[in-house]
Amino acid sequence: MKLYFDRTQSPRLARIAAEVLVHLGHGCDWSRNRYPDRDPGDVQWMKDLAAEGGWVVVTGDERIIRNPAERAVWRASGLTTFFLLPAWMRAPLEDQAWRLLRWLPRFIELATAERTGTGLAVPLRWHGGRLKRVWSPR
Predict the structure, then answer these.
(1) 51 Cβ partners below 8 Å, 6+ apart?
(2) Cβ burial, residue 32 (10 Å; 0-12/13-18/19+)
(3) How confident is the model at residue 21 (pLDDT cuts 50, 70, 90)?
(4) Cα–Cα distance measured from residue 39 to residue 114, given in angstroms and rounded to the nearest whole number
(5) What end-to-end distance do the CA atoms of the chain give, in Å?
(6) Containing domain of residue 79, as a range?
(7) Contact 61, 11 (CB under 8 A)
(8) What pTM, to 2 d.p., does this model score?
(9) For the chain, what is the domain count?
(10) How far is Cα 77 from Cα 67, in angstroms, rounded to an integer?
């Protein structure tokens, strides 16, 4: 599995996750690493990742679900996506880091168990690893 962090996530947080993911035998990339000179916009990176295949996304951008054009591209992309709820964006980076490390094994488990293209909302707090499904392909 390869995990992709979009621009809503700190590059530092993505690098921390990358170290753990590589140790667990998985890949990782993030927007500012992949596109250092520009923000390609959500539609473009979703199309790029879909074309490559095998990517799972972590984002704090719920506009992807709400904006009809972005939602259509996301659903067509087949990218399993973990949507970090707004509390993540308000938490200090060190809180985000340890909480993300707590969630990573669950992300890996769910990314292989759920249908490809499923969207899951991730609360900041663990709550037994329960996530809310925001969309699932048929």
Answers:
(1) none
(2) middle
(3) very high
(4) 29
(5) 22
(6) 23-135
(7) no
(8) 0.96
(9) 1
(10) 15
Strand partners, 27: 2
Q: Is 114 exposed, middle or buried (0-12, 13-18, 19+ CB in 10 A)?
A: middle
For the stretch 79-107, pLDDT in tens is: 999 999 999 999 999 999 999 999 999 99
pLDDT digits (tens, 9 = 90+) for 26-37: 999 999 999 999
Any domain includes 32: yes
Q: List Cα–Cα distances, 26 to 21, 36, 131, in angstroms.
A: 5, 22, 22
| Alpha-carbon torsion (130, 133, 116, 73), positive or negative | negative
Cα–Cα distance for residue pair 96/102, rounded to 1 Å? 10
Residue 13 domain flag: no
Q: State whether residue 79 is helix, strand or coil.
A: coil
